[in-house]
């Protein structure tokens, strides 16, 4: 429990510093989460410039509304990722809806399908980035290097049972990306966008 409390303590202190208006806290937060925010936004929008805008918008929102974060709901990282997801999906919907209104190709159903697919992909990316290193390493060996559980066990220096357990748990976590619909965080942080 003490191990889990350390990051939450950092999260609470960061929130307090932001609430006091400490610009250094925003810089620290940016340094820690900017690549996560930009990566998730880019995964949803597939547009570098739009991801830059979302990154700026997310950190502006955090700066302006630090009290919106509730440490009891989960880590600050998850809250920031959820904000990113929400802002990116809103932008994707607005952009695609405007294109449809101008007579662009596609239908409203195709738009919603595109939003769902982008949301699931972004959530899967977030899950992989957030999972413990041993699970991520096992999945990377199995997926990118096409190793089976026996080869994965040898490469990781673990038993075959442990390799199977890591792969199974990693895949179960990834399966939640699709099951959870469009929210990249716990239910208290968003739900469907």
From TrEMBL:
Residues 29-94 form the RNA polymerase sigma-70 region domain. It comes from the Bacteria. Belongs to the sigma-70 factor family. ECF subfamily. This is Sigma-70 family RNA polymerase sigma factor. Keywords: Sigma factor, Transcription, Transcription regulation. Residues 127-173 form the RNA polymerase sigma factor 70 region 4 type domain. Pfam families: Sigma70_r2, Sigma70_r4_2.
